[in-house]
Amino acid sequence: MNFNHTLEAFNRISEEKRNKIFDAAINEFAEHGYESANINNIALKAEVSIGSMYKYFKNKEELYLAIIHFGVESLKGILEEIICSEEDLLGKIEKIIRVIQSYSRSNVNLTKLYNQMTNENHSGLVWEIVSDMEGVTAKLYASFIKEAKDAGKVRNDVDEKLFAYFLDNLFILLQFSYSCEYYKERLKMFVSEDIFDKDDLVAEQLMKFIRGAFFLE
Amino acid sequence: MNFNHTLEAFNRISEEKRNKIFDAAINEFAEHGYESANINNIALKAEVSIGSMYKYFKNKEELYLAIIHFGVESLKGILEEIICSEEDLLGKIEKIIRVIQSYSRSNVNLTKLYNQMTNENHSGLVWEIVSDMEGVTAKLYASFIKEAKDAGKVRNDVDEKLFAYFLDNLFILLQFSYSCEYYKERLKMFVSEDIFDKDDLVAEQLMKFIRGAFFLE
Amino acid sequence: MNFNHTLEAFNRISEEKRNKIFDAAINEFAEHGYESANINNIALKAEVSIGSMYKYFKNKEELYLAIIHFGVESLKGILEEIICSEEDLLGKIEKIIRVIQSYSRSNVNLTKLYNQMTNENHSGLVWEIVSDMEGVTAKLYASFIKEAKDAGKVRNDVDEKLFAYFLDNLFILLQFSYSCEYYKERLKMFVSEDIFDKDDLVAEQLMKFIRGAFFLE
Amino acid sequence: MNFNHTLEAFNRISEEKRNKIFDAAINEFAEHGYESANINNIALKAEVSIGSMYKYFKNKEELYLAIIHFGVESLKGILEEIICSEEDLLGKIEKIIRVIQSYSRSNVNLTKLYNQMTNENHSGLVWEIVSDMEGVTAKLYASFIKEAKDAGKVRNDVDEKLFAYFLDNLFILLQFSYSCEYYKERLKMFVSEDIFDKDDLVAEQLMKFIRGAFFLE
DNA sequence: AATGAATGAGCATTCATTCAT
DNA sequence: TATGAATGAATGCTCATTCAT
Contacts of residue C214 in chain D, CB cutoff 8 Å? Predict the structure, then answer.
């Protein structure tokens, strides 16, 4: 969670260069996965010498983790904003869906990376970084569901933790559906070739699905 | 979709050897990902010479695709059986959930591979193989939902294709939750450490979630 | 001490190639020391692909140890022959001196390597290989001295183990004096520029030195 | 031999800093050998910027040579003191042995470096620095032996130059036996594990060895 | 004068693939 | 047909050295 100890050198360079490095790294890792991502390539694309690269990051793994950390922080920020807003549960859910649609489209590589991440054998270290975020969402979702349940709006017999999990699953795959080739093809096959021009329809239907799942009436 | 052209040599060897090769390959690919998987290693574990390996499969990619093909066929068989059974929609859904729980536990590596697959840059070729299966499920789900809708059991305002998609999303992530490290940790974090001892609870709650999403009353 | 386990592949190739590899490796290690010896270079000089090199030896260290092993065995063979000969102590010593003069001249690089070896931080593993030989010499020298002492030929107040050590020290530095640049210069400085043309003088004087050290009258 | 030309900058800094740099460099070179020694590391340990390091020493080699120079000067001082003392030959020899025992124990790294030095390909340059000292010892030893010979104390048939060489060889290896891992192990193997607790025995026996080698009676 | 960030050549090692037997 | 030895391109990482500040 706390990376700043090793990244001193990296944090000292200009923001422009930092972003260039992150961009290059996110692309490379998202495109090729951890193992076949090529650090010399990242350096080349970011117009930074390999030597510098290794001044900024101890090794490939640390760079990878830093990227993940960056991506997660970025996502966390957005989620927190929504979740802490004044909306009610349904309002929040709708907002999340909309944000997923726009965010995963404009951060294709970051989202691909998130999918990659679920495969890597680095799970241990990666999980340390991500669990933080997942933990927050898990708890918030569950508490909102609990609230709604107590208010009599949600059926009494639901396990709020599991329902939170199913809900987040729907969000995750929605995210991937807007960024990862495979899932994009799959969505097109399930629905239609022009589904990516119908964000409103997707949002509306997913809302309906979720509303039905949760709410009485 | 049709692989037999190149796989003549492979199909001619004993089933036992074929299975040994598949086992070794599935493990290696699932464990290390496409790029880091080591063909010489697979040959070693399968007790086959590398020379033979390259007689059976033109190159790494073809082996990978053959493995995916094999995995997908295995899954397709199971799904088809359920989907073509006499149960009604809810009955089928329950069966699928139960099968996912047992299948992904006893075929951990194959399921991991399925997750891997969604990342690789081979998406194009992979998709050719898998689209077949996804196409079948997509159509079947949609038709069943249509049926139920026409029968007045499912709300009228649902887009059956999108609902089929959401439904399958829930299934996919359930599958991963029982086999991929990352998703396993995530499920534990959302619910509890002992969630993997409570398959009935998970199945029951997921049924509830889906039933609510789809059905009137 | 037993290396054959890992060196199967290496032992299977033609003796000619094996010798070429050893020669190249001995030269490289003797010339540059362990750290800056370049394996790609050794492969090049030995006209073997790097890939093969790594089939024969797991890594740089194993190659190094194999070389040391080879050198030590070669030396051990010669020493054993002398030590087990029928000569008396003085006769053996003279033979050893003569052998050192010829051996270290015709195996310059192997002898340089022996000097290198005393510096490397691999001491641990290296020592395992060499201790064997050193142990043998140590014991043999000591026993011969003991014998001579018991026979009244050698003074009674000598510690045979320490005397064996001093004796071997004289041999070691004699060896280096015929192969290592530094020690060669040093010998020339102590005696004269043309000392390397006077092997008989060196041998005779060293005999005198040692005889005096050991023997009564 | 004369280094001061390039070392102006270095000689201008405080003695404390100079010593810190020497200490760090001696450790690094002794520990890792010339090639693997890391100048950036030396700078770090000596708390000097790399930039300054390269102001003081043109490059790695010059730093190395400066270190050798320093070490040799230190040793030369001690030897000269002994050699010019009023003792007779045997007295001097005993003093030298004692000094070797204490000096090589308290200057382990410098002594290691001396061993390193005999291997490096820098022999040429190194020799320039050291020959000075070796030349002095060579001449002094020889002259003392000559003296003793003329005085009838030493046998008439010895070549004083070669005997001086053998004598110095014994000293050199004694030195290494107290500081270099390899030679330490070797001494333990020849004599006993606890030999390093028996300096008096070693000194006494070496005296006996040398006395016998040189002296009538 | 002093600094230390930046550079990039260089090296150990891996592994997909070929091909002679 | 089957083998497995041989190949060599490719890549992560280090470190001596430079030079702008």
Answer: 212
